[in-house]
């Protein structure tokens, strides 16, 4: 077994069982780019501060870049006995250039090194996730623009409530994703703080320049307390919370797609590309991709709970427990990005069935609220107007009629305030167009929101 980097005070080798139990290279090897980037910044600073020679720094950097290519070409042999990505790269560096390679760890601990890697990784992934959110957002805006004339029931308590534009419904998801975008951007501020130079938790006696590594690595500032820094995993918990919120929104979308693609609703055709068949029932076309999206939220919620539970009882500062943060983090990233990519493509090909949505507007007295509003505008207290409208609904139900099918004479039996203009009010289209309040479902409002969304997405693309 190879000598450990920390093995100086030990007389016996680590048990093979302990090595297997404690290794992290099987999953943290995906941090190799970040580890090398952080190391290059570190040795550049060490040379600038004359802690190591410039020629030593150049030699180390050249070898690190060669190691990165070895890993990319799958010629690098990761070794379990070297525990993690940091020691695997360091050992290979020493193999390539000799003892000079050992100087890479001057004024640095694996405690601050792993944080650099993780923060660089999350920073990159946040930017990718934001881009993916924007792509999905564009599809909601595109579908809203293509379906401007389609009306469907607004459901509350899973009961038909009021008529709304499908475009307005779709833009609700745009707003959810915009909030997700803002959460990730805000999270990025706390991720983008440089931990390098905090060492094992007390800092270092070497005259390092943390501002230099902050600039080289693109961080906004250096952390202010070395103890807090090496024991901090808040940024991972916050990142996974942002992912959980995003997945909750995708799960709600998935639920609607599952419902809407059923024959009971029949509002949407998800297409053959994003559905599957049954092994026994040949007629089936199952919304499996939507169901899997809905199901995968369990993984992300579980990962958030895992991180919070992991950290809840740890004393300051670093504890080996924290090694368990990587697998929930990596799984969350993979799950979220996969769901975003899939739902973007699924939404592109989705076909909304306007005729079936229109049929669903009948049978639920869906403009009853408009009658109450109409009477309130005529001066009747709204609670009284609500009661009158309810009586009209009961009458229509008894007569087996839709509200639109009631005659003016029938309607006027319930109030002297009802005039001929009520006939426009109880029409579905009239109901939709009457919702002129900012953020309402009138086509004028929705068109403005589509224009605004396009501007917001265009601005995002430029940033």
Give structural notes:
- With 463 residues, the protein is mainly α.
- The protein folds into three domains: 22-106, Fumarase C, Chain B, domain 1; 111-360, Fumarase C, Chain A, domain 2; 368-426, Ribonucleotide Reductase Protein R1, domain 1 (Orthogonal Bundle), CATH 1.10.40.30.
- It contains 19 helices and six strands.
- The strands form three sheets. The protein has a two-stranded antiparallel ribbon with strand order 1-2. It has a two-stranded parallel ribbon with strand order 3-4.
Shape: elongated
CATH topology of the largest domain: Fumarase C, Chain A, domain 2
Q: Please tell me how large the radius of gyration is.
A: 30 Å
What is the CATH domain class of the largest domain?
Mainly Alpha
Largest sheet: 2 strands, antiparallel
Could you name the key traits of this structure?
6 strands; two-stranded parallel ribbon; 3 domains; Fumarase C, Chain A, domain 2; two-stranded antiparallel sheet; 19 helices; mainly alpha; single chain
